[in-house]
Design a protein that fits this description.
Largest sheet: 6 strands, antiparallel
Number of strands: 17
Strand content: 35-45%
Number of helices: 3
Structural class: mainly beta
Radius of gyration: 26 Å
Oligomer: single chain
Shape: elongated
Helix content: 10-25%
Length: about 290
């Protein structure tokens, strides 16, 4: 949501006078689906105060785009700014062209608003929306889908279903390790060499204890593992006696957790990456509920 002001001026004998002003709110938003090749960009404008000639204007919109996409349809017909506190809206739909097997494409969409007023030159303002990414490259997805790639989707571990896993993640994040927030997310890696290195450095010397297995956080399929540097830390009850405690934003936490939960974690992670179309280099969050 942003503020928008439209001002009319007249110049007579070199003297410019303000003849009116309209103060507006603009809401600029969009939506997509991870299972559809089409996404939408909407724009709504409402004048909430004003005076003079500015309130005689009408507004219309034109939608366009750049990148791997085409415009399917768009509608923002000319509408008067008055009455005040009423909404003027437009909606546009776009289709990705990244539909071939393995294709990944980005698209940025724009609305151009034109204010038209008798005796005044048209005034234009544009609204750009954050980029969409559509792909036919997500393993396990048979259809094309679209996401906002900078949005860090949420991988959730349930305390009720996975108590030892959830406990470890909570303590690891509380010790300073990243991943819980939009401001400090984890980063997906699809590089098996990085994943294997993360696992080996974190849990390669874990003890053999019946019913338990070694869990590392940040997860091995993130770029924030030990392959990027740092040291290990652990907590009371984790049965990693050869590893010290620690705090800070780098390194990993290791803990012996229930083996069945650790095994299930791999499936949870895979399902999450597939459902949310989290590709290599994408941010994501890990939370406990």
């Amino acid at each position: 949501m942003t503020g928008l002001t439209y001002t009319t001026r007249q110049t007579v004998n070199g003297q410019t006078t303000v003849t009116g002003q309209a103060n507006m709110i603009a809401i600029n938003y969009s939506y997509s689906d991870t299972g559809l090749p089409t996404f939408a960009h909407q724009l709504e404008v409402s004048a909430y105060s004003g005076w003079g000639d500015a309130l005689k204007a009408s507004v219309d919109g034109q939608a366009t785009m750049s990148g791997s996409c085409t415009r399917e349809s768009a509608s923002f017909p000319a509408q008067t700014l008055t009455p005040l506190n009423s909404w003027r809206s437009g909606e546009a739909f776009f289709d990705t062209t990244a539909t071939a097997a393995g294709a990944v494409g980005n698209c940025t969409t724009y609305w151009y608003l034109t204010f038209t007023n008798a005796q005044y030159s048209p005034a234009v303002v544009d609204y750009q929306l954050n980029q969409f990414r559509c792909d036919n490259a997500t393993v396990g997805r048979a259809t094309v889908g679209c996401v906002v790639p900078w949005y860090a989707s949420e991988l959730i571990y349930s305390k009720a279903s996975y108590p030892s896993l959830a406990s470890h993640v909570e303590r690891a994040q509380a010790s300073g390790l990243p991943g819980a927030t939009f401001e400090n997310p984890l980063t997906r890696t699809e590089d098996d060499t990085i994943v294997d290195t993360n696992r080996r450095l974190a849990c390669g010397d874990a003890p053999s204890i019946a019913g338990l297995s070694c869990d590392e956080y940040p997860i091995a399929r993130s770029r924030e593992g030990l392959s990027s540097g740092g040291t290990r830390r652990t907590f009371d009850g984790c049965q990693m006696s050869h590893v010290s405690s620690g705090t800070g934003p780098t390194g990993v936490s290791v803990c012996m957790i229930t083996a069945t939960e650790n095994s299930a974690q791999g499936g949870l992670n895979t399902q999450f990456f597939r459902a949310e179309r989290v590709l290599d280099g994408d941010p994501f969050r890990v939370t406990v509920s």
